[in-house]
Amino acid sequence: MLVANIATLTIAKAHLLAFWMLQAAGADDAGTIGWDPIHLWKQMSWVAQVVVVVLFIMSAWSIGVMIDRWIAFSAARKQSRQFAPVVAGALREGKLDEAIRVAERNKKSHLAKVVTAGLQEFKAHGESTEIPGEQIEASKRALERAEAIVHAELKRGLGGLATIGSTAPFVGLFGTVIGILNAFKKISEQKATGLGAVAGGISEALVTTALGLFVAIPAVMMFNYFTGKVEAFDVEMDNSSSELVDYFLKRSSATTVRR
Hints:
Blueprint: H1 2-12, H2 14-30, H3 37-43, H4 46-92, H5 96-105, H6 110-126, H7 132-154, H8 158-190, H9 195-258
């Protein structure tokens, strides 16, 4: 969906790109200052160009994180929906080995990763001579460790997304300051205050400011969106762990009664 939106936006703005290119050709013929991307780049100082390059790198990084997390979360959600009813049916029938095999086949599911750790620990301790209480506690610890690991995996890259969202406006602001200083420098050198004297500095100030906001706003929005997703996944893992512990308690109680 994200890639489709980007493609749609690109197509929608194609006429603007064509207009900028025509404007650039006209500016070359007339020898006037151009406001298309190519002329804006050429009019910038090297410091402002570095700022623009840094902002583009930050934008590319944030888009990469967005796509990666979108794919990972979509796969986790899809496999978990398929995994939950199947493993629940296997556990109701007492087929512990079958439940483990089902969990291991759904490696992208956050629920499967947690359930696999708990089931394997319960099975390993069930084959030993430990008392049932120790078996349950060991399974709980395994579930908690698995939840912590999966939580860290789900949050991978989100810290960088938050950093980009919070720092990109300030990187753009740095370019703004440089642009304003260059505008004043031109006024001082040319002893004039017309548009031609300050156009270059003002243009790079506006461009860096706009780019900083363009990079920061999507990064902040997607960070909040993905953080909400991670919190929802955490709740699902907690619920699954709790239900699995209840299953372990019932199974241990039934085993004790039979003995």
